[in-house]
Amino acid sequence: MTEIEKQNEIQINNFMNNIVGLREKHNLTKKQMAEICGISLYSLRKIEKGELPNVSCEIVINLARYFNISASDLFLDNL
What's the CA gap between 35 and 59, in Å, rounded? Predict the structure, then answer.
């Protein structure tokens, strides 16, 4: 695995953990979080499990706007 691939994997894991963390911190259901993201509940479940690594910019922007954070923050460790 190259260094870039390692970094991508880390960022995907961070994003996945941050999605779950933000949802739980704000007492949102998975259905509510899916609506915020503009995706189906099925897709949210896949993202939270790390099974859907290709997340659109639209999802990232929707989350950043809703939680009033920068889009890049969603990929940081321990948001």
Answer: 10
